[in-house]
Amino acid sequence: MIIALASGKGGTGKTTVAVNLALAAGENCKHDLQFIDSDVEEPNAHLFIKPELTSSETAGIPVPQIDQGKCNYCGKCARICVFNALAVTGDTVLTFLELCHGCGGCAYFCPEEAITEIFREIGVLEMGHSNKMSFAHGRLNPGEAMSPPLINAVKEKIDNSRHVIIDAPPGTSCPAVSSVRNCDYCLLVTEPTPFGLNDLDLAVEMLRKLDIPCGVVINRADLGDSGVEDYCRKEGIPVLMRFPWDRELARLYARGEPLVLHSQEWKNEFTRLWETLLLKAPSTS
Amino acid sequence: MKELSIISGKGGTGKTSLAGSFVSLAGNSVITDCDVDAANLSLILNPELKEEHDFIASREAFIHRDKCTECGLCRELCRFGAISEDFHVDPLECEGCGVCYHACPEEAISFDEVVSGQWFLSDTTYGPLVHARLGVAEENSGKLVTMLRQKAGELTQYPKDLVINDGPPGIGCPVIAALGGATAALIITEPTISGIHDLERIFSVCQHFKVHTMVCINRFDLDEENTEQIKDFCRQRSITLAGQIPFERSFTEAVVQGMPVIEYSNGAAARCITETWEQVLHFLD
Questions:
Q1: What is the pLDDT of residues A240-280, one digit of tens each?
Q2: Nearest residue of B to residue A196 by CA position?
Q3: Cβ separation of A105 and B102 shorter than 8 Å?
Q4: pTM: predicted TM-score of the whole model, two decimal places
C-alpha cells in the first residue's frame, strides 16, 4: 500500500502527519515500513525521523554537449528545442543547460551527430533507516528549477513489498503530481480557513484527475471556520482526523519531537488512522 | 521601479497574510500573487476582476490513430513515458518537448498549443492585482510567474512604482521565477527546525541569484531558542532582520474575515507588522 500525504497549501502539517503516522504504523506493521520524502525542494521529514543515512546517489538529467569540430551551425537543434536551451548564432552554439529538460531531441535530430549527452547533476538522493523503517529522500541543489526528475528518482526507491508513506510537496503542479502519482490513497492535510479550503479544493481536483481516492486531516481544527467541514460533507470526502491548535503541540513540532513519542493518546489516534487507511486503500503487499 | 518578493522556503509561514498587510500599508503599489499553484492573496484583498486571459505557454502531442502505423518510434524516443502501449499520449506525462512530433515518419502526431491556466488583472483599493490560476497538474509555473511580473512591471507608474510579489513556497521553478531580478527578497520564516532548515536553503537560492535578502521571523514567541538560532544565522551572514511578529489568533481570524491582519486587528502582531514594513521600506531605499 502506498499512501501519500499532500496538500495544496504549504505548512498545513503534511510532515507532522506523515511522520507520526509512520512511527505509529511501524509498531503495528507486519511488514517493515518505508518512508519517502518527495518534497525535494524543502525536505524536512528527516529532521523528525532522524534516520541514519547510509548511502547517497546523485540524480540528474542528460544535457547536450556540442562537438564544435563536427557542428556546422545549421541551427536545427535550436529550432527543435522548445525549452530554449540552445541558441545558434553565426558560428557559435550557446547552451543554457539549466533550461534543458533532458528530452534528447537535439542529440537525436542533429544531422551531423555533433551532439552527445552528458549527465548534469540537479540533486542528491539519500537513503537510510530508522529502526526497522527504511528511509529515502532527495535534496534539490539550490538554484535548480526542475524538481520532477529528482522526485521520480526518489520514487524509484519505492519497495513495493512494503507499506510506503510518501511526504509530498505542497501545490498542485508538476512536483505534487509526480509525487502522488500511482499512490493507492492520498491524505490531504488542510486547515479550516478560506486559504486552506481554496487549496484543498485544488488538491482534490488534482487527485480526481489522477483517479486517486482521498481523505482529509484538518489541522488547527479549532482555529477558523466551518468551510472545510462543509466542503468535505458536500463532496463526500471523509475527514479522518482533526488536530486542535495547542501551544504544546506547536512546541514539540518546533523542536522536531514527534507527537507519538510523547503522548500515548496521540499514538492511539495515529494507530487508529493507520488502521482506517489499511481498510480504505487496497493492499498491494 | 522597486520590486519586493516575499518568499519562505517552507510553506505556511505566513507569506500571504504578511503580503496582504504590507500591501495595505503600502497604500498604492502593484501587487502580484506569484503562488500560481495555490493563489490565496485575492481572498484577503477583495479584488474586482477587470480582465481574464488564457495562459498559453506550451504544446502537447496528440497521436492521430488513423495515420499511426504503430511503428513504436515515438514510444522509444519519449523520455517521459508519456506514450502508452496502445499509442495514446498521456497529457499529464507529456513534457511538451515535441520529439515524437518531429520524429514520426507518418506525420501522425500533431503538436498544438494548450491552455495551461488563466491569468487575471483586478482592481483593489491598494492598487492593481495581477494574479493567475495554473491549471491543476500543469507545468510552466515558472513561465506564468515571469509573465505576471512582466505585466505588473508594465502597470507601475513613477513615482509610485513599487511592486509587491507574494511568492510560492519551495526553492524550485516558480520561486526562482519570482525572485530573479527583484530589488529585494523578504524571507518569512518561523522558529521551528523545519523553518530553520528551509531558511538556509532558500537563502542559498537568494545568494545564487544575487538578490538582496531580508528575514522576518513570524510566530517568534513559539520557541525563543529557535528564534535566537535564526537571529544568529542572520548575524553570521549579515542578513538584515526586518522584524519579528508574535503568534496571534488574529492571523487566522483575519483570513476568515477575508481581510489583511493589519486592518482586522490593532494588537501586538499588527504593530510588529507595521514596524517590519517600515524596515523593509528603509531597506528598499
A1: 999 999 888 899 999 999 999 999 999 999 999 999 999 98
A2: B40
A3: yes
A4: 0.95
| Chain-centroid distance, C-alpha A211 | 17
Q: State the greatest distance between any 2 C-alpha atoms of chain B, in Å, as a whole number.
A: 70
Query: Chain B residues with CB inside 8 Å of A39's CB?
Result: 170
**Predicted confidence (pLDDT) per residue in B240-281, tens digit:** 999 999 999 999 999 999 999 999 999 999 999 999 999 999
Q: Which pLDDT value is given to residue A284? A: 47
A67: helix, coil or strand?
coil
Q: How many CB pairs under 8 A join A and B?
A: 190
Q: What is the ipTM of this complex?
A: 0.94
pLDDT-flagged residues of chain B (< 50): none
In-domain check, residue B105 = yes
Judge if A106 and A208 occupy the same domain.
no
A residues 177..196 contacting B (CB < 8 A): 177, 181, 193-195
Which CATH number is B185's domain given?
3.40.50.300
Query: In the prediction, which pLDDT does B234 show?
Result: 98
Residue B197 domain boundaries: 2-46+125-284
Residues of chain B positioned with their CB less than 8 A from the CB of A78: none
Characterize B85-122 residue by residue with b for buried, 16 or more Cβ atoms within 10 angstroms of its Cβ, and e for exposed: eebebeebebbbbbbbbbbbeeebbebeebebbebbbb
Give yes or no: residues B148 and B209 share one domain. Answer: yes
Tens digit of pLDDT for each residue in A123-133?
999 999 998 89
Judge whether A160 lies within some domain: yes
Given B83, B115, B147, the domain boundary residue is: B115
B34-71 b/e with 16+ CB inside 10 Å = b? bbbbbbbbbbbbebeeeeeeebebbbbbbbeeeeeeee
